[in-house]
Amino acid sequence: MTAVLVVEDEAKLRDALADALAASGHRTLTAAGVTEARKHVANGSIGCILLDIRLRDGDGLALLQELRSGASRSVPVIMVTAYGDSDRTIQAMRDGAFDYVTKPFDLDRLLAVVARALEQFQLAGEAVPQPASSSADALVGASEAMLAVTKVIGRASASDAPVLITGETGTGKELVARAIHRYSSRSAEPFIAVNVAALAPSLIESELFGHEKGAFTGAAARRLGRIELAGAGTLLLDEVADLDPSLQTKLLRVLQDGAFERVGGNEVIKSRARIVAATNKIVRPGQAGAALRDDLYYRLAVIEIHVPTLRERRSDIPLLVAHALQGAPARAVTEQVMRELMTYDWPGNVRELIHVIARAAVMTSGDVIDAVALPNTVREPARRLGPSIDPSTMTLKEALAAFEREVIVAALERANNNRSEAARQLGLARTHLYAKLEEHGITAPEAKKPSGS
Fold it and tell me: Which of 25, 233, 319, 403 is deepest in the core (most CB within 10 A)?
């Protein structure tokens, strides 16, 4: 029987994890650091590794890279950390981690991830693929919704497959595309972004495919298109669903055959670029109003990433505010401002939040942004989520708790009081939802019942 190796330098947590795994029927081994972990791995019989990312005697990511390149590369590694760092999440997934979990643990979820990892190992499936960095383009967020996105980015960056990124305007779809490029083997090559919706229809074909001299009035010389300029790098087609159907057909050929011709030319040119597309429109085949050809959708969505709205990752707002204030004259916000930000519905998503903080920083003369510096639209009660939340009478902790309660009640209503379905919608384990119901005093009658029940 293969063992689950727990690599954790906090003795109490290490023992608690080992006990929980043993209670679920797993044979366990423990290691307090990198050196001890190497010895267990060398002895073999390891079916899964729970590896803390920060260890006193070394770096968990460095050990992950070592494991992935050695004889034990088929052993699934689940990275563990208390730090919701998107760069480290992406690097862990890019370097071959099976999954990534954060402290404090949802024990049910952790055990489910371990079970999947052991099943994969037993089926002889190798752990998933592999690099890193941090920049102004870094994705900010420690919520479960953003961790899910960064995990897929890590896997996508290890592949050359086309990617389709969906999500509302302002959610950060271009940042996701840039992260895929930055962590890929193409990172030294160009990243070319084209906003299809911003180009005049008569110019799009020439912009994408280029044109030959004399191809049309005003074409005084040959011009290379964005696909050609991307070389072996990454081409982002933003708002791809706005492409004319005839150009969707030509793009399909690029994806299928890696070939195209410049406007007015006969030479077949081979494309080496990786295509990443983004859209805020409905594109999935079968849905009313789908704006992409079915065959183009399936070619683009080999890997599909949906970027959540800011409303779906409200817990990331303090991190985003801190990120937006880097380098600004103001360095913090008052508790009242944070309450306002946490309860606003953010129709413009992260982009709107960044603009609001930038404006407020300019309107503030001191180090701390006060509520008077916020635009009226943000302070308007009509634009808030959670009608029972009155930030003017609550602490931040109280406002967050009230908002969380209303989100849970809304999920129960949508699920007709089916708690398993509500837990699925909320992205929680059932046991976690039950704990939240008890914490907030939510009882079944608060959820809507099906008519006739």
Answer: 403
Closest CA to 75 of 17, 122, 34: 122
Residue 376: pLDDT over 60: yes
Structure tokens, 132 = 């890193």
Rounded to an integer, what distance in angstroms lies between the CA atom of residue 246 and that of residue 296?
A: 12
Distance CA 379, CA 374 (A): 7
Contact 206, 162 (CB under 8 A): no
Q: Which residues are 369's β-sheet partners? A: 333
111 φ/ψ angles, rounded to the nearest 5 degrees? -65, -35
**CA angle, residues 387, 392, 396, in degrees to nearest 5:** 85
Q: Report the Cα–Cα distance between both ends of the chain, in Å, rounded.
A: 50
Question: What is the Cα gyration radius of the chain?
Answer: 25
What is the model's pLDDT at position 452? 44
| 178-192 as b/e: b if 16+ CB within 10 A | bbbbbbbebeebebb
Give per-residue pLDDT as tens, 145-177.
888 899 899 999 999 999 999 999 999 999 999
Decide which of 220 and 349 is more confident: 349
Q: Which residue, 398, 358, 408, is CA-closest to 378?
A: 358
Instruction: State how far Cα 145 lies from the chain centre.
Output: 7
Pairing of strands 259-260, 269-270: antiparallel
Tokens read off for 334: 């008052």
> Encoding tokens for residue 357?
């903080």
In whole angstroms, what is the distance from residue 1 CA to residue 225 CA? 58
Closest by alpha carbon to 336, among 406, 402, 408, 398?
398
Confidence check: pLDDT of 133 > 90: no
Tokens matching residue 59: 């770096």
Continuous segment of H or E residues that includes residue 411: helix 396-414
* pLDDT tens-digit map of 64-110: 988 888 777 778 899 887 655 677 778 888 888 888 888 777 888 88
Task: List the structure tokens of 327.
Answer: 């380098």
- Residue pLDDT, tens place only, 394-448: 666 777 777 788 888 878 877 778 888 888 778 777 777 887 887 777 765 443 4
CB 80 within 8 A of CB 63: no
C-alpha pair distances (Å), 235 with each of 150, 170, 229, 273: 20, 20, 9, 6
